[in-house]
Amino acid sequence: MFDGQVKLIKYDYAGESTLGTAPASNVTLSSSYYKGSLSRIPYYYWSGSSSNISNTWSSSTLNTDILNGTYLNTLGSEWSSLIATTSWKVGGMAWSTTNTAKQYYTTELEGSSSSTTYSAKVGLMYVSEYGYATSPENWNTALNNYANDTNRNNNWLYMGAPEWTISRSSDGSNGVFVVDLVGGVVYGYVFFRDGVRPSFSLESSVVLSGGSGSSADPYRLA
After folding, report:
1. Helix (H) or strand (E) holding 175
2. What's the domain count of the chain?
């Protein structure tokens, strides 16, 4: 729950059928870490194209054309009407191998960086959300060190392939934060290629109408 709204993050990586744009590459993982069901994982540029090397989220066509264009339209008008327009805080923070979830959250979402925003329905997860998705005893661990069995196995957001966060590096014009193959948070570049899991918040008027929350009996909304 964030700002009185329930936030959802897609379980598995989004593909060409929902993002509507051919991926930069399709990767068959030889790793045992991947938890999903895709035979090949589509990878996209954070900036939307290899020719765009800016880490400004408002200029990313992954944001404007894909997530808040084709993907949102693919969900249909009924689902789209349930999604709240969110003020995404995209100022970012400086990269460090010692940053903890709290440091990311305090700087990116509460500090001066939080004044840089972008309003849209769909985005990606914040790096701090990934940090807090592990069990509480690990919250003081640097996210760069999440690449171990304890943090990886206890983190419900870890999916087992490299993926983007919406969080950018504030000490460079093309750096962003990435969850890597083994679960650590690392520095990446917008022209790299990684997996995409869309994220969005529900309107406060949305209510739970049924379901237990399991994969066999998912929650139903109204």
Report:
1. strand 175-179
2. 1
Q: What separation in angstroms does the CA of 119 have from each of 15, 21, 72, 157?
A: 24, 22, 14, 24
Q: Distance between CA 178 and CA 168 in Å, rounded? A: 9
Residue at 1 is within a domain? no
**Does pLDDT of 3 surpass 90?**
no
Cα(92)–Cα(215) distance, integer angstroms: 33
Token representation of residue 183: 């679960």
State residue 162's pLDDT score: 97
d(CA 100, CA 131): 7
Asked if residue 2 is part of any domain, the answer here is no
Question: Does a structural domain hold residue 188?
Answer: yes
**Which domain range does residue 177 map to?**
7-221
Task: Give the Å distances, CA to CA, from 155 to 31, 131, 183, 184.
Answer: 18, 8, 9, 11
The predicted pLDDT at position 218 comes to 78
Would residue 66 count as lying in a domain? yes
Instruction: Report how far residue 68's alpha carbon sits from residue 99's, in angstroms, rounded to the nearest whole number.
Output: 30
Q: What average pLDDT is seen over the chain?
A: 93
Q: Around Cβ 60, how many Cβ atoms within 10 Å?
A: 26
d(CA 165, CA 123): 9
